[in-house]
């Protein structure tokens, strides 16, 4: 009985070993390292997964650490490709950037709210608690419910950056996690104001969810305007390289910018660069 | 067979092996708890070495990205929402169990129990979604913003009600039939039997049911995340938006880096310590078993 057990174990081990050596390809495995923005990373990881299935000899390693780390690692050569959720600054102009998607944020209110637009200062005053009633901005006599995002979310960062606010200044009544929760909160409260990704807001608004996307600086919040780069509250999601991309890095960047990954981009509520 | 053994009090060989195995299993379970605690401690340590533990209590607010780490508002929110839910669910749960065990006609009782079991099986996220889309707008009509401590308490109470009802029901069932017949022989009324015989006899089962429910309420994440509003503040009224420790971790973990991430582990550690405190307190206040 014991011998039989031993035999089975030996057989299994050798089968595993055989399978391992057989599976090992003849060509060397190429490795591609991406580091940077935590906004781009989930999207890059999805794209990488699909890329690996098309190119089995490539391993793509995606690490987060913020846009600045992406830039630094690309400069120092630690990463083949950096990820940044902003355009390159002037002192970074020696790098090459490739936009793979655009991210836009829309201010949303309930459909029943008579307010049709708010200017930048009004939104700042609402979010810092200086305006607490819709009456002061041309709406009904009702207290405003301010919906803010949880710390660490890229939407929050972009929102704060655009309005020049610090998170400590914001006086929220509700804090939410993802876009869906924001849309549910606003659609369930006629006096709420919030902000979510343009992609998800536009989708829900056209599917009978009672929310309204407010224009910003006179420009309608829509996926089309984000794509045309007209919408002010938006930013590019970039892949960064030290030199003009070559070899497998070039193939990856081209793949990430192609229409083959549009569904992945839209699943993360970003806007593909081209259709 | 037994008579042939020299000493019936010593364990047989099979029993010894089984006892060894069981001891091993018990050790592993105990070790797991210790490991979780150790892991939380080791993950929180980097920040506790740089930032004093007092910062987690005295900082002006919770803005981990800006280096402000006050977690006490979340401790109070967790405690208050759990307490509120228990206050609502315990009497209702006990009443529901008493009704189905002693007052309902048998056919109704069977269906009623099935209904409660169904209620216990509903995933928490469904309760959360219902709370967010139905209950929160109703509460908002009384006092905005709708998502609040009160909404969280109501949803939590609804969630733990079946837990209380089912465990109390099981505890009542475990009361020996002799107690019932003795009480009947003494000519006690139904309510007198329940009050002075059944409930004292089932006391420890009822208590553990409440503890189980408290544990579920403290640990509940998704439903609370959706209905509590998640603003980090000490609530001044039932209509204030609050954030519990669990919701804090779920909200911020996926996007947290560096010190922010470590600070979230500290809130996990706080949650763990709170549960430990709760369990040991309930052990402390444990009444001696009542044998009627």
The class by helix and strand makeup of chain A works out as alpha/beta
Rg of chain B to the nearest angstrom? Answer: 24 Å
CATH homologous superfamily designation of the largest domain in chain A: Periplasmic binding protein-like II
From the alpha carbons, calculate the radius of gyration of chain A and give it in angstroms. Answer: 24 Å
**The CATH topology of the largest domain in chain A:** D-Maltodextrin-Binding Protein, domain 2
Low-confidence stretches of chain A: none
Helix content of chain B: over 70%
CATH-scheme architecture of the largest domain in chain A: 3-Layer(aba) Sandwich
Write the element-wise H/E pattern of chain B from the N-terminal end onward. Answer: HHEEHHHHHHHHHH
Largest interface: A-B, 28 and 31 residues
Key attributes of the depicted protein:
heterodimer; A: 275 residues; alpha/beta; D-Maltodextrin-Binding Protein, domain 2; 2 domains; ten-stranded mixed beta sheet; 10 helices; 10 strands; B: 292 residues; mainly alpha; MetI-like fold; two-stranded antiparallel sheet; flat
Task: Describe the model.
The complex is a heterodimer of chains A (275) and B (292). By secondary structure, chain A is an alpha/beta fold. Chain A has two domains: 30-102 and 236-272, Periplasmic binding protein-like II (D-Maltodextrin-Binding Protein, domain 2, 3-Layer(aba) Sandwich); 104-227, D-Maltodextrin-Binding Protein, domain 2. Helices cover 38% and strands 22% of the residues of chain A. In chain A, strands 1, 2, 3, 4, 5, 6, 7, 8, 9 and 10 form a ten-stranded mixed β-sheet that branches. The longest helix of chain A has 22 residues, at 2-23. The relative contact order of chain A is 0.18. The mean pLDDT of chain A is 87. In chain B, α3 packs antiparallel against α4, α3 packs parallel to α6 and α7 (177-185) packs antiparallel against α8. Chain B has a two-stranded antiparallel sheet with strand order 1-2. Chain B has helices spanning 13-50, 55-58, 72-103, 106-121, 124-142, 149-173, 177-185, 190-201, 203-219, 222-227, 245-252, 258-284; strands at residues 62-63, 68-69. The mean pLDDT of chain B is 89. Chain B starts with 12 loop residues before the first helix and ends in an 8-residue tail after the last helix. By secondary structure, chain B is mostly helical. Chain B contains twelve helices and two strands, in the order ααββαααααααααα. Chain B has two domains: 2-50; 57-291, MetI-like (MetI-like fold), CATH 1.10.3720.10. The longest helix of chain B has 38 residues, at 13-50. The chains are: A alpha/beta (275), B mainly alpha (292).
